[in-house]
Each structure stands twice: as structure tokens, then as C-alpha cells.
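Changelog entry: the HMA domain-containing protein record was regenerated in this release. Current contents:
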Amino acid sequence: MTKVEMQVDINCGKCKNQIMQAVTELEGVNQVVLDEEKSLLTVVGTMDPICIAEQLRKIKQKPVVVNIGPPKPPEKKPECCKPCLPYYNNTCDLPYYNYNTRDMVSVSTYENGGGCTIV
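Regenerated C-alpha cells:
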């Protein structure tokens, strides 16, 4: 994975749309961020930075490479200091209780995080 940052000219909404469309058409692009205030285009993926510049030149942009390097690693969640109950979804912000087998409750959520089923 490579993170490429390029300075581009963003004069209007049409320019922004053209830039986004041109870059997202490239093979290997995983993420595209366009900062209008800084006129900075950030592209993350396995694509070739030269292909990004060529694609932008096709739409009359004059890209200036600011930075090429590895993307920032995702932040790790801190390790928990006390045991968690399996049906709390590994969050330890709830108090830990010792339950008997007859007191167990199973809670599951949908993959999108919405709703729950209590059995």
C-alpha cells in the first residue's frame, strides 16, 4: 500500500468532480480524499503514483507531488485490564459480574451494529 499526496487546482465544484472521477477510475485505488481548503489530493492504494499524475494531466490539472510513502497504520485500541463477559462484545465499561449458568443471557448484534437479539 502506498499513500500519495498531490497538490491540485480546485477552482470549482466541477474541478473537484473531475479530479475524483479521474482518480477513482485507476486500478488499485482504495481511498481518495480531496481537501479543498489545502488543495490536497490524497490517494491510498497499490496504484502507481505516475499513473495518478498522468490521469490528472488528462483533465488539464498540473499535479505537484507533495509526499509518497506508506499510509498511516490504524490506531490500536488499548488493551482491557479486566476480564470481559463474552456477551458484552469485549467492552469493559460495564461492571463484571459472576453469573450462574441459569442466569446467563446471550446478546448478539447485527453486523452493521444496529439492533440486538436477546435470547
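The beta strands are 2-7, 29-35, 40-45, 64-69, 107-109, 116-118.
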